[in-house]
Amino acid sequence: MSEQGPSEPKGRGDAWTEERGTSDTPRAPKGAARSGLSDTPREPKGAAPSGLSDTPREPKGAAPSGLTSDEGARREDGASRAPGGERDNTAPGGEREDTAPGGEREDTAPILEVRELTVHHGQLQALDHVSLRVFPGEVYAIIGANGAGKSTLLRTIAGLHQPTEGSIRYDGQDVTRVRPERRAISGIGMVPEGRRLFGSLTVEENLQVGATYARKGPWTIERVYELFSWMKDRRAQRTEQLSGGEQQSVAIGRALVANPRVLLLDELSLGLAPVVVQRIYGMLPEILATGLTVLLVEQDVSQALRVASHLQCLLEGRTTLEGKPSEVTPEQVEVAYFGLRTPVGEGSEEP
Amino acid sequence: MVWVNDIIQGILVGGLYALFACGLSLMFGVMKVINLAHGDLAIIGGYIAVGVIAVTHIPVLWSFVIVVPLMAVLGYVLQRSVIQAALDRSILTTLLVTFGLSVVIENALLEFVNANSHSLGVNDAIITSSFSIGSQISIAYLLLLIFVVAVVVLTGLQYFLSRSRYGRMIRAVADDREAAQLSGIDYRHVFGIAAAIAFATVALAGIAYGMYSQFSPTTGTDTILLFAFAAVVIGGLGSLWGTLLGGVVLGVSQAIGAQISGSDEFLAGYIVFLAVLVLRPQGLIARKATS
Predict the structure, then answer these.
(1) CATH class of B2-279
(2) Do B183 and A199 touch (CB under 8 A)?
């Protein structure tokens, strides 16, 4: 990641500027080419919205192409030769794009499936019939502005909020009414927003608490010390004394030692310096290599685009965009993110 | 020499006060529950001991073998039912609920036992006697025993909290309930465990008080709860060693007050209590901030 990091944002950046520079209002050609995309900013939610938003990922019946390499390799591919890759993908009318991951996904059942989830905070509706399906091995990114409902979605999946409507299925089982600690034990791990470490406990004790009900798996406290090399020497320190980035690392370690199957990452970048964010996201491939599935929420769009294999944008509690990062155009993201028809707030997504 | 004796007596009584206070301190530290029924529960422990001894004729000193587990179970059950239900509403509700519990316990005792004083008479000569150092210092074995028990309980509790798996879970839950849930910890169960431990110490406090003095249904609120509060506030909320120090400071100031004038015993204790509240509201040993 540290190697592809620099090359990727450059490619993205080019695309952004190019798009902004050339086409102002009607971006028909590109949008049309990527037909598989579900750009559904104001979807009427009455008629089978889940079907709608799922369309791009539904298999077209075609045999899966040879693109079965792991997400990391694919991402690297797409990143390093962004313009060429895009043309490649768009040529067959989005068909190939869909079948490649679609076919791969079809082989396995979704590990996490959220259907028509509606959540209220008191009178306020935070989520409005949001659906998503996360398949094993994916990095599923949910982006959106402040208050879009991203964190609520993640917290509801972890069990910290009760939905007013809809269901959550994990590993084929309905867990909508299951208590959060039971979900954690069954393999839904979470790094909560703001890290939420046990402040009066040491680094090691935080990890030990995380490992209390650990499932069997590759992650141990020692392994976490290997991942974050500084940590072992400072394991006897209280986490209150650590910097923000270090605390975030401990929070990730605490979630990992439980050996979750699905890891929910809530705004890893929050309150951290960009360099630190880069470093933490740089750890992601190594974490994914152990067979985890990641569902992450991120305000920082460029960061999310860099790591995600699937993207979903929320706006005011609704899904406004869904697809693979390579499928979506920057202005689609912009519209979905801000809910505006004309691109404004230039550059505000990119730190 | 009189003063030295006073201070020594004060320190020893301080052990009893620390025993009163540590359950209160633990429940506040972990669940943020200020248990206003704390003193009455200690008295219940005393009455259970009276009953157990009457039925089984076991020696008073061994009554804790039955009373402590009984109270621990009661603690777990009360926490998981009444107190948790109050906690789910708000912290303030727990104040009301435990106050209500206190009133209920007191009146139930008046109704079903009676208003007479009871005590747990120790017939063992080694316990009832005392030994002297010099001509003016006389130390009762019972008080010494209570002090030792208090130190052992607090040391054990400290060790349990800092070293054991459950202790770690208790501290984690006290720090951040939700984050603990995300690690698979059922905080309600952990609260129950903490309450069970707190009630076990409360049972010891009740038995110790019954041997040291005598109790009636109202002793819980008018003596034990007040002294427990004073000890906790003087020592510092949530700090176990602070609780011991608070108990000792309270005991010593009472002893000195009594020496000045017999009627100033409790007044002196409360003056120190107020002075600490004004001058050092976090207590003598402040718990390292977690929130």
Answers:
(1) mainly alpha
(2) no
